[in-house]
Fold:
Amino acid sequence: MARTTPHQHPPHQHVRTGRPPVVGEPLYRRVAAELLGELRAGTVPPGERLPGERQLAEHFGVSRETVRQALQLLRREGLIATDRRGSHAALPGVPVEAPAVAGFPLGAPHAGRDTVARATVTWEVPPPGHAEPLGLAPGRPTLVHRYWCTSPGGREQRTAVTSFSAVTLAEVEELARYRDRADGTGAAELRRTYDWMRRAGLSLHHRDTITRIPGTPSVRVTRQVHDQHARPLELTELVMDVQEDALVYEFMVPAAV
Structure:
């Protein structure tokens, strides 16, 4: 969510009423309106913790005091809530269908309670072996998602890198929005990626290949996802320590007809 440089803001609407901002309206109200717009767009899903004041200040190009006032306004209106974990979105969530297979990226939601996980997105040339299956020309950049999960002692349990095709970015609006802020510095909340794809009318077909990595206690899981027209959507490579972690697959069985 964070940007490395301030950006110019278009005219904002009032937080609750949707009316255009009044001339001379306090800056914190404009920041509150834009932050609310991003929350409604799913940048931070309901219940997820918001970035810290410093990150938000950098993202909106304002002072931390302005961010603090904007958060207070949203808190008073019941649009965010604050507890010992920090501030998080309190908007009602969009109903989400049960996933057909393990979550993105490859079972990430199943990480243990005491593990530490982080993820970033960048706009760059994909890793070797990703471009051709995705139909990307050599050297062409795309959205690349990276995920790390470590144990409390700092031992790496799983890492994953995902590259998206041009088809996905053209048809899945929520992912396309990440291009302008894919600088690798901000947190990336892409756990609902498969839900976004299905909501865009794409039927997901997964093919997972699991291979052992010689001389290590780890395995590599390579997932290729296509849509109902056999167009490539994403390719994920997950490396996980099978002594520390477990890969869980979830399947939704079609109802009898």
